[in-house]
Structure of Phosphatidylinositol 3-kinase regulatory subunit alpha isoform X4:
Amino acid sequence: ANEKLADCRDGSFLVRDSRREDGYTLMLRKDDSSKQIRIEHSNGKYGFTEPCDFNSVPELIEYYRTRSLKEYSAALDIMLLYPVCRETEVSEVKRAANILKKAGELFNEKSSRYEELSDNCFECEQEIAALEEAISAQKELINFLEEQVKIHINFRKEAPTTERASLDVNYNLLVDRLSEQQSGLKTLEQDCLEKSEKRREIESEMNRLKPDLWELQHKKDKYMLFLEEKEMRREEVELLAGNTDFKIYEFPMTEEEEKVNLSPEYWLFGALDRDTVKSYLDKSLDGTFLIRESKNRGMKAVSIM
């Protein structure tokens, strides 16, 4: 019952047999989870609480189709909106196929986003590595210029007065270049900081996607297995699941194989009963055929997969 309600919208419900003798339980979907409500049975009447006022379970359910269950419980402010019907095997397969298709589409969408983020993260890491290398080189250059400034200051103190004017020009040029490189270092460090923050944001989004991908993959595996157990062909299941990397390889027949398939001795049979025909064609590819003697004298019948 929980599995039937798992992918239903809020307000979906079903009634199942209870473990109690002659008892029933209402299963209700609310707030994306399944709730169980015991249906009381007393003196031939039914209800959620004593005293029971309804003559039958259908009458009880019909009443709450148009009224909120908050009359029974304040936490259940919802009506019984969407009955979940008993499923035939065919409808069960169709429902499973629809769930698998939606899970596959959502998985591919989130997976594409994850791959895009992964590429962006790798690109960020490369840019950060390049910036860190540039920062290291910039620091070495700044250290060199600072040493040159110190040497210039000491040299100027000992230089003759006549040479100090030209030394001052060189000193000012050196200081300007040092200031320029220090400013460039700050820009590089800021760029590196911003790239690191961007990488953290990307990694954070990737981490948020991982549980969704694991859950969707688990759902896909579950419904793929179910459909295969119902004898749906593997390639059909893979296509429903949106597994785009799954390929159906077709190998062309050789000339000898073509002759075998075209030769009547391989597909023209005498009288065959239904079970024998089924055994020949069972699990064959679509389009496989044979021709046999018909029950109508002098006529043939085609059996095709």
Observations:
- Strands lie at 12-17, 24-30, 33-42, 45-47, 82-83, 289-293, 300-304.
- The radius of gyration is 39 Å.
